[in-house]
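Subject: design request, 171 residues
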């Protein structure tokens, strides 16, 4: 079984820089790449679902949403609206990663796309533990001094909370 490398991407060219380093270090024949995009949940969906109907993280809710139309707790029109919004968000996120995925596949890599909603650090940590990831490769801004004491980066939260190596690129 090939090792899985998780590459969290936020849509910026900065976050994609780590891909070139992964390609240099890990040949296509030796690994599987997982491109993870995490987005925050739009306020309109938070208010539409209501806190009482939510259990688990937002990614769990996103996967659960298509089945809520059958629920007697929710108006069918509201359910259809939520399904359309979730579907549109997910499709947009997949489209944003499609070009990167195609380029990596053309180089011979096995590539999987993962879409999650919620807090980026929490979703990276959760995805890593639930999906047998062997390495997390991510770009980091690497704040120094006083700013670092006040503002924690996603990488700073991920590193101590995963049980696999984390390769951080500070371009």
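Subject: RE: design request

Done. Sequence follows.
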């Amino acid at each position: 079984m090939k090792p899985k490398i998780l590459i969290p991407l936020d849509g910026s060219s900065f976050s994609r820089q780590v891909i070139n380093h992964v390609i240099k270090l890990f040949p296509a024949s030796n690994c599987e790449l997982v491109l993870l995009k995490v987005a925050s949940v739009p306020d309109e969906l938070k208010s539409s679902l209501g806190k009482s109907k939510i259990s688990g993280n937002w990614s769990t809710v996103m996967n659960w949403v298509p089945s809520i139309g059958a629920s007697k707790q929710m108006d069918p029109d509201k359910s259809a609206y939520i399904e359309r919004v979730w579907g549109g968000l997910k499709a947009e996120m997949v489209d944003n990663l499609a070009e990167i995925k195609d380029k990596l596949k053309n180089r011979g890599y096995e590539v999987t796309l993962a879409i999650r909603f919620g807090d980026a650090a929490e979703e990276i940590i959760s995805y890593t533990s639930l999906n047998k990831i062997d390495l997390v490769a991510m770009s980091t801004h690497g704040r120094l001094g006083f700013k670092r004491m006040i503002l924690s980066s996603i990488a700073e939260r991920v590193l101590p909370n995963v049980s696999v190596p984390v390769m951080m690129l500070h371009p």
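Residues 52-58, 60-72, 146-152 have pLDDT under 50 and may be disordered.
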